[in-house]
Write a structure and sequence with these properties.
639 residues, alpha+beta, four-stranded antiparallel β-sheet, globular
């Protein structure tokens, strides 16, 4: 299970924000010890404690930016907010580091404290953090804790018994520590594609080239199965998967100026790197009537080696091959929406949080990307507190430099079915990223003719009738965060959060796998690699679609980015976005699948996947809502 730790509460986050903001009275004596914010493991209350740990420790101590987090937050807000005197006056990477890297005196004081306890230190070149290694006893001495062995949620870990501390003289200099608690922290891709054990997958050709073009009336089931009406409505088959030209006709209709993203760079982050991604994307584009990448238009920034590559999550593994499909979707979707944009892929060496964070360091310090799409995240609001601050610092640096971070909002609706309580997913719920939710989308020869929120229930054939097999199957993530306060831009837009938490999503795009995108990928079929196409969805599709149309907006506005997009989106009440209210689309569609996921050898299976038919705490309505945000982007977002 993803992130076996307890989510921080609003009160805790508010306390952290206060601690980041100031030093107190100038002449006040520093306390003898200063707690490091959010360094107590959230799972301690339900863990079983063993004996004292006696092994080694490898940890990362995060340093506050010069001037503190409040100063960085203020700058990011000012350069991203329309009407501000600093709007779109961004820093270069060099200017950011000159302004916000922790001072050398702070680095010297921190390393002196850690080395004094017998720990070895390595300093990040940009003073973001100090890595430390040593024995448990050395760590106990340095951080003022007792590190013990614990079992919780099926894991055996070592962790401190309370908050880690620094010397009082360093109060405010250290904002987080990661690694004293060895609970693993993974992220998952937000795609929805069933696959047999060997990883290959194909859709049967019982589908429509456009929405509604194929129905049981004009295309009989291949095995003669009678497909009845659903709740009195004759449903169409699902589309075969939308292509680039169809997606552009849906979202970019009416756009003038010939914008295609030329001169703009879209960054993509995922774990690992598919060895065939560029060849697959080029073949897919050519086969579907689009132009392949020009020489140099696609590039990659990759680590030297990969870790945790197998598929056993219980053994801290990520499943390298499973991430290849995610990367393929992201690249092909972004290229479909912005055929002229440069695509730069940043691969992480694993699916663990620190390695995904490393991709943001590379993106921000290279400073060539204008918008970054991220189709992965955690389950619910559960986020390791130290990593929350590390993520947020990366997003703030990006905003200060004019880089927009967008994230999939998740594929489990309000998370109540999976976790037990309504929650939003992180990092999508961070206030310094744009959360992209999902829609069920009808695209015909006339363009986008209907859409609603993506919340799916599933029905299967039993005795000649459709019978519900899953009240909630999947759906776009949304709701109100339980650990991140509602940001000012949402309050100013008149959004009332019932629990005081950040509302998600901000906007939405096609995400329902029943109305998803056709992609092409080299997969493994019964031991052999071969290229084939299949339909895929999830908010993993929605995020790169939005990044693509945002690349057109950046091109249309002189090629300079916008930093954090949300102040612009909310200050205009979602101008340029189509309010999704559920009009113009059926109750669902009939999906036909191979039993074995590959071919007709074992027969076919039929199901109805409903459109916004599952009951959650999310709603679709006029204006901003917790299923689709302000709605889906249109040409008005670009111009």
């Amino acid at each position: 299970m993803r992130r076996k730790v307890l989510g921080v509460t609003l009160a805790v986050v508010a306390t952290v924000a206060a601690s980041l903001g100031g030093a107190g009275a100038a002449n006040a004596a520093p306390p003898p010890k200063a707690p490091i914010p959010n360094s107590t493991p959230g799972w301690l209350s339900h863990a079983t404690k063993g004996g004292a740990a006696n092994g080694s420790v490898s940890a990362r101590v995060y340093l506050a930016p010069a001037g503190g987090m409040d100063a960085l937050t203020a700058l990011a807000a000012s350069v991203s907010t329309p009407g501000s005197a600093q709007y779109r006056h961004f820093l270069t990477a060099a200017q950011y580091h000159a302004t916000f890297d922790a001072p050398q005196a702070t680095v010297d004081a921190v390393t002196g404290w850690l080395q004094g306890a017998g720990l070895k230190t390595t300093v990040d070149p940009s003073h973001r953090y100090v890595d430390v290694t040593g024995g448990v006893g050395n760590a106990n001495k340095a951080f003022g804790v007792t590190i013990s062995n614990y079992t919780h949620d099926g894991l055996t870990v070592q962790a401190p018994d309370g908050p880690a501390t620094t010397p009082g003289s360093l109060s405010g200099s250290v904002i987080a520590v990661d690694g004293l608690d060895t609970t693993p922290s993974f992220v998952d891709p937000k795609t929805q594609k069933p696959a047999p054990p060997d990883g290959g997958f194909r859709n049967p050709p019982i589908c429509g080239k456009t929405y509604g073009s194929a129905t049981p009336a004009n295309l009989a089931a291949p095995d003669g199965t009678a497909l009845p009406a659903f709740e009195g409505q004759n449903l169409p088959y699902s589309p075969c998967g939308y292509t680039g030209s169809q997606l552009r006709s849906a979202y970019e209709s009416g756009l003038t100026g010939g914008y295609d993203g030329t001169g703009v760079t879209i960054a993509i982050t995922d774990a690992y790197a598919s060895p065939t991604v560029e060849a697959d994307a080029n073949r897919y584009a050519s086969d579907t009537g689009d132009k392949p990448f020009a020489p140099g238009q696609f590039s990659q920034n990759l680590p030297n080696a990969y870790t945790n590559v197998n598929s056993n999550k219980s053994n801290h593994q990520c499943g390298m091959a499973g991430w290849y499909g995610e990367e393929t979707l992201d690249v092909e979707a972004a290229h479909a929406m912005a055929p002229g944009a440069n695509i730069r892929y940043y691969g992480a060496k694993s699916c663990m949080d620190p390695d995904l964070l490393d991709t943001f360091t590379r993106i921000n310090d290279e400073n060539v990307a204008n918008v970054v799409t991220n189709s992965w995240g955690g389950a619910g609001d559960v986020v390791k507190p130290s990593l929350f601050l590390a993520y947020e610092t990366a997003f703030l640096q990006g905003a200060a430099q004019g880089i927009s971070y967008v994230f999939s909002s998740g594929d489990d609706g309000d998370e109540a079915a999976r976790i037990g309580t309504p929650q939003t997913d992180y990092p999508a719920s961070d206030p310094f990223v744009t959360a992209v939710g999902g829609t069920s989308t009808a695209i015909t020869d006339a363009g986008l003719t209907g859409e609603t929120g993506w919340q799916t229930s599933k029905y299967v054939l039993q005795n000649g009738a459709w019978t519900q097999s899953a009240a909630f199957l999947y759906g776009g993530g949304g709701g109100y965060s339980s650990n991140i306060p509602e940001p000012k831009y949402q309050k100013d837009a008149g959004i009332v959060s019932p629990n005081g938490g950040r509302g998600v999503p901000d906007i939405s795009m096609d995400g329902d796998p029943t109305t998803g995108m056709l992609v092409g990928q080299t997969q493994t079929f019964t031991g052999s690699a071969a290229y084939d196409t299949y339909r895929i969805g999830g908010t993993s599709l929605a995020s790169p679609l939005f990044a693509g149309i945002t690349a057109l907006k950046i091109q249309a506005n002189g090629g300079t980015g916008f930093g954090l997009l949300n102040p612009l989106i909310y200050s205009t009440q979602g101008k340029g976005f189509h309010d999704v209210t559920g009009a113009g689309i059926d109750k669902g569609a009939i999906r036909v699948d191979y039993v074995n996921g590959l071919d007709a050898t074992d027969g076919y299976v039929y199901s109805v996947r409903t459109f916004n038919g599952a009951t959650t705490t999310q709603t679709v309505g006029t204006g901003w809502d917790t299923e689709t945000g302000w709605g889906s982007a249109r040409s008005g977002w670009v111009q």
